[in-house]
Amino acid sequence: MAVTDSSTLDSRRADIEAGRTALGIEFGSTRIKAVLIDRAATPLAGGGHTWENQLVDGVWSYDLDQVWDGLRSAYAALAADVRATYGDDVELRTVGSIGISAMMHGYLALGEDGEPLVPFRTWRNTSTAQASRELTEVLGVNIPQRWSIAHLYQAILGGEEHVTRITRLTTLAGLVHLRLTGRHVLGVGDASGMFPIAGPGMAAGAGGDGAVVPSGAPGHPAGTPSSHVGYDRARLARFDDLIAGRALPWRVADLLPEVLSAGEDAGVLTPQGAALLDPSGTLRPGIALAPPEGDAGTGMVATNSVAPRTGNVSSGTSVFAMVVLEHDLRRVHEEIDPVTTPDGHPVAMVHCNNGTSELDAWAGLFKEFADLAGVDLPMPRVYDLLYEHGGDRGEPDAGGVLAYNLLSGEPVAGLPAGRPLVLRAPGSRLTLANFVRAQLMTVFASLRLGMDILLDEEQVGLDRLFAHGGLFKTPRVAQGILATALGTPVAVGATAGEGGAWGMAVLALYRAERRGGFDEGGPAGPSGPCSAESLPGFLAERVFSGAPTTTITPDPAASEGFERFMDRYREGLAIERAAIEHS
């Protein structure tokens, strides 16, 4: 990370050496990314590690050895960036706080020894339809197939032997945090993808009386209501009643992590955790950790979208929109997930399993052709050329070209599996620009199906929508297509490409400030100006005040073209279903 001004370099070097920094590490679907920021949330250094999920015996998973190798690799790359940018003598010995985030949902069932009992089942799996359907009916709230409780109940329905031996259930972020701190906790945003949440300002299940903290939570006896958000008490009881005849040796609350809101105490880096993160022994233990969060929560933070009537769209391997609600939705929608912000405010989430993976595959194909032609084009340039050509030269409806980016099942579209397709009628106009534009438009097509329910049927208020993720690194193009897809202005900030790792670093900064801020002696000063500040206030006043953003409003001609594309998309779903059935 290049820094040219010598005074800025000296100031940042001093902050790094004194630990007046915060570190965010996010386990994305294709990349593990680490970002170090200063007290103004300015990125100081970064590191990354590329990885990929595997389809093993029909299950989307990651080998957990890759988790620990990737964690160490991303951190080592960050430490190397610190030395390269600020001097070989500058070592990353401590930071003010650390935060871990990762892909939400999925199934990590741990045994008595803390090791997973079965391979990690990620959010991408769509094998829990029966559990999802039954739990939605019993609990009276939408339980998507991705949710941890759906995976657990499906394993129970399937008679899987390991369920009797589960002692803890967690997410990927929760597992990494557990190894670093010894604490079985989750931020409320990530926890809301495990089991329904209730708390102040949120509706509990019928007959319930608020939130409950799991057994063993420090300072909270098992089964007592919490003053902050936690798992829905009534629905926990309903789940236990549902499985009562199966002679399982646990209650569901015994398995779930303790729920924490942003800024709360989530433990400190243990000596074992420090050695796991930095085997060189340079990083010192004792660093405070923020509550671990899911990528949806860090996306909300990265876009300053945690207050009611704000929303954001995150685009990566999956695409999802988060809209912070003023009130509960009128009815249950299987396309809408009830989750929360990192400080526990209710959120409506439209999650699409399929995002940019198919687009990335096509970009790789064009890169391969460039190599074959003897043209040296780095991948970022390939993306920019393709996106800009599709955005500038493609017809508003992609010239009649239709594409489906569905590599896996897409519940929002009612599809149990995926088949990537490119379709066109004989009269369509197949050009490179139209082909690329169709691939860009289809990234947001399933999202549009869910957002129609939220904005049209439920009349949810939305004042501003922010976008972030690697798809938006190329200026204007994807941002403009998203604006036309949803019919609303879309803003992108300077940190749009930083993504969730930066958002997690900001949550770690918030934890450090809530802990007492930074004094000249290091990260644990006795008091701080933000000790009682809300997360929305902290973001608005401390992080995003004066931050530059670019907003694109929907273009009428482009919007009309997208509507024609969506008409073909909806009609063509029958072709997608036939492809799934016959291939």
From TrEMBL:
<keyword id="KW-0119">Carbohydrate metabolism</keyword>
<protein>
    <submittedName>
        <fullName>Xylulokinase</fullName>
        <ecNumber>2.7.1.17</ecNumber>
    </submittedName>
</protein>
<keyword id="KW-0859">Xylose metabolism</keyword>
<feature type="domain" description="Carbohydrate kinase FGGY N-terminal">
    <location>
        <begin position="22"/>
        <end position="138"/>
    </location>
</feature>
<dbReference type="InterPro" id="IPR050406">
    <property type="entry name" value="FGGY_Carb_Kinase"/>
</dbReference>
<dbReference type="Pfam" id="PF00370">
    <property type="entry name" value="FGGY_N"/>
</dbReference>
<comment type="similarity">
    <text>Belongs to the FGGY kinase family.</text>
</comment>
<dbReference type="InterPro" id="IPR018485">
    <property type="entry name" value="FGGY_C"/>
</dbReference>
<keyword id="KW-0418">Kinase</keyword>
<dbReference type="InterPro" id="IPR043129">
    <property type="entry name" value="ATPase_NBD"/>
</dbReference>
<dbReference type="Pfam" id="PF02782">
    <property type="entry name" value="FGGY_C"/>
</dbReference>
<feature type="domain" description="Carbohydrate kinase FGGY C-terminal">
    <location>
        <begin position="312"/>
        <end position="511"/>
    </location>
</feature>
<dbReference type="GO" id="GO:0004856">
    <property type="term" value="F:D-xylulokinase activity"/>
</dbReference>
<dbReference type="InterPro" id="IPR018484">
    <property type="entry name" value="FGGY_N"/>
</dbReference>
<keyword id="KW-0808">Transferase</keyword>
